[in-house]
Amino acid sequence: MTDALYVQALYLACGAFLLTGVLVLWRRELSAIVRLFTLQGVALTALVVVLGLWQGELELVLVGAGVGALRAGLLPYLMRRALVAGGAGRETQPLVNVATSLLVAAVLAMLAYAVSQPLIRLSPTPATQAVPVALTVLLIGFFVLVTRKRALSHVVGFLLMDNAITAAAFLTTSGVPLVVELGISLDVLLAVLVLQVLTTRMRAAFGGTDLDELRELHD
Amino acid sequence: MESLLVLAPVAVPAAAACLYAVLGWNRVTAWLGTLSAAGLLACAVALSAASSTASSAGSFTGSFTAGPGEAFGGLLFADALSAFMLIVIGVVALLAMAASPAYLAAELAAGHTDPHAMRRYGVLTQAFIAAMALAVLASGLGLLWVAIEATTIVTAFLVGHRRTRAATEAAWKYVVICSVGIALALLGIVMVHYAGTHAGVTSLDWAPLAEGASRLDPGVMRVAVMLLVLGFGTKAGLAPMHAWLPDAHSQAPAPVSALMSGVLLSVAFYAILRVKVIADVALGAGFARTLLIVVALASLTVAALLLLGQRDYKRLLAYSSIEHMGLLALGAAIGTSLALVAVLLHILGHGLGKSVLFLSAGRLHQTYGSSLIGAVRGLAGRAPLLAGTFALGLLALLGMPPFSLFASELGLARAGFAAGLGWPVAAALVLMLVIVAAVTRHTRRMLLGDGPGIRPGDGPDAGPMPPDGAGGAPADGPGAAAGGAVTLPRSLAVPLVAGLAACAVLGLTLGPLHSLLRAAAMIAGATP
């Protein structure tokens, strides 16, 4: 792989990663959101594999395959199952409308760019220069979490943040130590399973997964 | 032998969890949890004895080399600080587990639970304790993160144990907010790793990180430390990410609330203490100090404001936890030897006092069928022993002598003024006065007021729906409480009295704990 090809492939993967993140804000159909999330998992896998090929490390490529299996395979599968069980799936009334959300995404991108300056300054390689992309997706995930009202949207928001952190880890240091990576993946998977069970219980107790119903506990 | 001692605190509760999964919860296995907690405490005491002698023998260098040993391929390790935290976990777990049989028996009698849920309770509480032990024994940031996130996962179903609307809501908020917060901490860890690899530190273990801390890039570390404090602060219940805490603590079964409030918050705070050691070397003492002072005063303010108008006694206890976490953050910000000894003593004292209170509150909730302050009246006349443990626990929490929280708060204040942080400490003292006034006003009526309490659902003043009134069913089983006596089973009374006694003894003398506390404070980066 030549330098130029590596940089182009890397940025293509990062671009796809960012685009899928932003598009989550655009779609209100829950099934479309899950599809976008799957695509983002594929982009993340591509990103890790490109890094692995460039560094000539088989281990990194294998880790990439593992990341892909979890984030483009298992997690979307779990969410689709939750979606089927939940019946009609449309984000009812997001707190912020779509046009404004997209504008906010632009602002978040600038914020992410500003925050990542010290990170890029430490080692301005092509990979670290893509860190603002990861941070943008992190902030978008947080934004989804705050403004959407469906339980599944919350899960997607949380997973967008998690994808972004994984991307940041691979872009800066080719990933955290393997034991830690395994632990993290397991924790994320379990967190999603827990949320899924809670969604089922919520449907039983509230008759739906609109989080506006969650207002019994307050001061 | 030593490596076995480091492994045992995680292995014993994990084994107990497996046994519960196989045997279920019955009259005999109900005491298995207590046994496992006692075993954990014994290991903790043995470990701290080993680390105290290691430090007094002079091998102590102020870094992470003072520990008695590593185990499990270097993934686990113990020094005086982890040994002390293990003692706190062991003590609170012992109280909570000893109170569990009586609590669950009453729940079963009232039809709130079934054998299936009780088995799950046994498995999850033990897994919870094992995860906390793993967190304080983790040799590095990575495993610590994994263990703390694991506590979120295992406690999610404990918070939602009652399966009511309110409990499900609390569990949802708990998992979402804590997972997001802890995800921020993960990003912080990624940044630390990034700074580390460029400074020649490729592992995330405490020892190499502390050694290489001065070479870490300050620009990256500033971002990392902010994320780590915010992330672990979420789990520690520090403002501004505290929103999950009152809900989760008020909905969880009482022994679980005791564990969560008494130790889980402190275990997350322990992570902040460890991070601060590295941050102070990499960035100078000022950065983490400013951050912690802001967080501490914000937490105290939130607690004071929401305690003023509080109508629910379990939430009252939860906000008091936020207050005490704020005090811990303030102590860590001061950072002198006296302050850190006080912080550690405060962790233990708060663990004891808060577990006694949550366990008493659980009994109150079971008898009155409501957690509204207005529903409980004249407790002192009806149940002198329960009223006594509740009142003494509150006095302990408000920092009255002879309880150990008095000593630790006094130590914090003295250390703060000596370190030139007079203003933040003075502000904290004013907020604490507000809290004392608010808590006394609310609880005086519960203990001494006369006349029947407001029945849940009566009148417009009754406030939010009582948590167990799900499905429109009338609050169950409180009939006896309105006029008759409130009983306190002996197996519940023993841990309550023992917890208070331990808290009072600690306020009078530290005994052998003194050298351990000093060694642990040195490891937490005490400046002279």
UniProtKB/TrEMBL annotation, chain A:
<keyword id="KW-1133">Transmembrane helix</keyword>
<keyword id="KW-0472">Membrane</keyword>
<dbReference type="InterPro" id="IPR038730">
    <property type="entry name" value="HyfE-like"/>
</dbReference>
<feature type="transmembrane region" description="Helical">
    <location>
        <begin position="152"/>
        <end position="172"/>
    </location>
</feature>
<feature type="transmembrane region" description="Helical">
    <location>
        <begin position="95"/>
        <end position="115"/>
    </location>
</feature>
<feature type="transmembrane region" description="Helical">
    <location>
        <begin position="127"/>
        <end position="145"/>
    </location>
</feature>
<dbReference type="GO" id="GO:0005886">
    <property type="term" value="C:plasma membrane"/>
</dbReference>
<feature type="transmembrane region" description="Helical">
    <location>
        <begin position="33"/>
        <end position="54"/>
    </location>
</feature>
<protein>
    <submittedName>
        <fullName>Hydrogenase-4 component E</fullName>
    </submittedName>
</protein>
<feature type="transmembrane region" description="Helical">
    <location>
        <begin position="178"/>
        <end position="198"/>
    </location>
</feature>
<feature type="transmembrane region" description="Helical">
    <location>
        <begin position="60"/>
        <end position="79"/>
    </location>
</feature>
<keyword id="KW-0812">Transmembrane</keyword>
<keyword id="KW-1003">Cell membrane</keyword>
<feature type="transmembrane region" description="Helical">
    <location>
        <begin position="6"/>
        <end position="26"/>
    </location>
</feature>
Automatic annotation (TrEMBL), chain B:
<dbReference type="InterPro" id="IPR001750">
    <property type="entry name" value="ND/Mrp_TM"/>
</dbReference>
<dbReference type="GO" id="GO:0008137">
    <property type="term" value="F:NADH dehydrogenase (ubiquinone) activity"/>
</dbReference>
<dbReference type="GO" id="GO:0016491">
    <property type="term" value="F:oxidoreductase activity"/>
</dbReference>
<feature type="domain" description="NADH:quinone oxidoreductase/Mrp antiporter transmembrane">
    <location>
        <begin position="140"/>
        <end position="430"/>
    </location>
</feature>
<feature type="transmembrane region" description="Helical">
    <location>
        <begin position="252"/>
        <end position="273"/>
    </location>
</feature>
<dbReference type="GO" id="GO:0042773">
    <property type="term" value="P:ATP synthesis coupled electron transport"/>
</dbReference>
<feature type="transmembrane region" description="Helical">
    <location>
        <begin position="128"/>
        <end position="159"/>
    </location>
</feature>
<dbReference type="InterPro" id="IPR003918">
    <property type="entry name" value="NADH_UbQ_OxRdtase"/>
</dbReference>
<keyword id="KW-0472">Membrane</keyword>
<keyword id="KW-0812">Transmembrane</keyword>
<dbReference type="InterPro" id="IPR052175">
    <property type="entry name" value="ComplexI-like_HydComp"/>
</dbReference>
<feature type="transmembrane region" description="Helical">
    <location>
        <begin position="71"/>
        <end position="98"/>
    </location>
</feature>
<feature type="transmembrane region" description="Helical">
    <location>
        <begin position="171"/>
        <end position="196"/>
    </location>
</feature>
<feature type="transmembrane region" description="Helical">
    <location>
        <begin position="492"/>
        <end position="513"/>
    </location>
</feature>
<feature type="transmembrane region" description="Helical">
    <location>
        <begin position="385"/>
        <end position="405"/>
    </location>
</feature>
<keyword id="KW-1003">Cell membrane</keyword>
<protein>
    <submittedName>
        <fullName>Hydrogenase-4 component F</fullName>
    </submittedName>
</protein>
<feature type="region of interest" description="Disordered">
    <location>
        <begin position="449"/>
        <end position="478"/>
    </location>
</feature>
<feature type="transmembrane region" description="Helical">
    <location>
        <begin position="417"/>
        <end position="439"/>
    </location>
</feature>
<keyword id="KW-0560">Oxidoreductase</keyword>
<keyword id="KW-1133">Transmembrane helix</keyword>
<feature type="transmembrane region" description="Helical">
    <location>
        <begin position="327"/>
        <end position="348"/>
    </location>
</feature>
